[in-house]
Amino acid sequence: MLRFLPLVLVCATWNCASRGAGSSSRFAELPLAEVARLDRQRTLIAGLVKQRYGARSLTKTTSDLQFLQRLLDDHAFSKTQTYELQSLGVAFGDVLASELGLRWMLITDEYGTDPTLRFGNTTIQINALTMVSKRVERGDAVNLATLVKQSRDALAKARGAGW
């Protein structure tokens, strides 16, 4: 149970969805079908960013945040456009992955099987796919730079706790 407590803290900080990576959770490499799905979602967001803002491409770095934030601020997607919002979550997750040393993995747990960002070989995960969409669907303001900072701070705490 001791290993589970930091995960709850981290997920509460990141609002990683209501799932935890307990002892019944299994991580696996992303199968090709999931890689292809995430790539389609990245392409959707990259195309919209190019069309609306003239950006050549997304770089999976913090320089993408300005465009992803503009999509949110411009209300490019309504709260009912879950697929599109989750696509934005994939692009945001790519930024988190590159900036925080996370990697896309597949998690299977009591809630199902989904892509997630995993911290090293720990059970700490960030469900970037829904991190943005759940906030937008609730009507919350979303500041991606703040989410990156909160994620970085929570990971630093987890590292300091021996993860």
Q: Could you describe the 3D structure shown?
A:
It is a single chain. The chain is α+β, with helices and mostly antiparallel strands. It has a single domain (25-150), classed as Up-down Bundle (Four Helix Bundle (Hemerythrin (Met), subunit A)), CATH 1.20.120.1090. The protein has helices spanning 4-14, 32-53, 65-73, 82-100, 128-138, 144-160; strands at 26-28, 102-109, 112-119, 125-126. A four-stranded antiparallel β-sheet has the order 1-2-3-4. Helix 2 (32-53) crosses helix 4 (82-100). It starts with a helix and ends with a helix. Mean pLDDT is 87; it is low at 1-19.
Topology:
Elements: H1 4-14, E1 26-28, H2 32-53, H3 65-73, H4 82-100, E2 102-109, E3 112-119, E4 125-126, H5 128-138, H6 144-160
Antiparallel strand pairs: 1-2, 2-3, 3-4
Helix pairs in contact: 1-6, 2-4, 4-5
Quick summary:
This protein is an alpha+beta fold and 163 residues long. Helices cover 55% and strands 13% of the residues. It is globular and about 40 Å long.
Largest sheet: 4 strands, antiparallel
**Mean pLDDT value:** 87
Provide the helix percentage: 40-55%
- CATH-defined architecture: Up-down Bundle
Find the CATH topology: Four Helix Bundle (Hemerythrin (Met), subunit A)
Number of structural domains: 1
Order of helices and strands: HEHHHEEEHH
Q: Give the low-confidence spans.
A: 1-19
Could you tell me the radius of gyration in angstroms?
15 Å
Strand line-up in the sheet with most strands: 1-2-3-4
Query: What is the overall number of helices?
Result: 6
CATH class: Mainly Alpha
Terminal residue distance: 14 Å
Total number of beta strands: 4
- Work out the strand percent: 5-15%
